[in-house]
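User: Show me sequence and structure for the first protein, then do the same for the second.

Assistant: Starting with the first protein.
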Amino acid sequence: MSIQTDVHDGVATVTLCRPEKLNALDLDDARRLTAVWRTLRSDAGVRAAVVTGHGREAFCTGVDRAAVADGQVSQPASPYAIEDPLLSIGPKANDLWIPVVAAVEGMACGGAFYLLSEAEFLVASQEAVFFDPHTTYGMVSAYEAMGMAARMPFGEVARMALMGTAERLSARRAHQTGLVSELTPAGGALDAALRCARVLASYPPEAVQGTVRAVWAAQEAARAQARAQAPQLIALGNLPPERQSELFAGRGRGGAQGREGPRVR
């Protein structure tokens, strides 16, 4: 299975399992992930969760480009609507209010931010890196940047969203800016996240979930107002899919092919 769920001692570990694709999500994966959160919502025995990626190379690299390239994702004609298969992959999008901790090893980029922005906090290994490739490939970073803007200083999220594939944010820098709450040695993120989740699962669930809801209530109004503008921004700013594919393949101006490796800061 590309999405694996294991429950032990009140903690659900949700693992993205497509290491051959750097844990990128295709459309079936997105549906499965939505179903996982909805199932956990009705399971009173699950009091906390950890979301992670299989292996140490990547947490998640967003949507599988093949799903876009072969036309599986078609956009509405109206600029006031958007078809985004990853919009419902996060726990909060599915009305799940148990605390969720993200354990990040390796790359976390693009659509991974749908998950990271809906976790209560992040634990990352020292080898983790974060970046947003949208602008490089002619796409607007809207939902992703909006989600991360609630977790990072304005200048940091703006730089990450705008610099595309040219830069990667190191785990050290992410920790300094507050995106990451704890740094671990390589390979240690999952154990550290599970340690936190077990503590949360041991507390009275009503108090924990009420606190989660209170923290999110503090920022929901601004988040909702920003997201309401996303469809128009994407419709106006995105290049046609075929042009995006050219850039992704490195055949057009702005493509990554032949370029020196990204700067890690």
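Switching to the second protein now.
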Amino acid sequence: MAVASKPGIDLHLLGGSIRRDSLAGVGTWTHQLVGMVSVDTAFISVGGITPERGLTTHNIAEAAVKSSLIKSARRSILLADHTKFGREEFGRVAPIAAIDTIITDPAVNLDLVREVEGAGTEVFWPGRN
């Protein structure tokens, strides 16, 4: 709602079946919509980030939509708190290198940050110089 009122921004929401636990839009309609657009910047979230498995989430239908969004976007930004680093979920979304930037919090494990940045993805959090 805060973004929708800003001048110069066209905000689009995906339809489809809305999952009760995550409120994510998934399913055939969602995939069709993602396939019809070219996105400037995609903001996504995931359940897990590991150097070996990349980005993962708990639901395979959500993983498929997130993967499609990353592929359709010129730039992808991952919003993930420190608890997502080092965690692996069931559905694979994308390799870490598919994301341009990760925004997290200051409690993130610095060893995992180094591994992520080694894959070519920037990691930022409040207070980082």
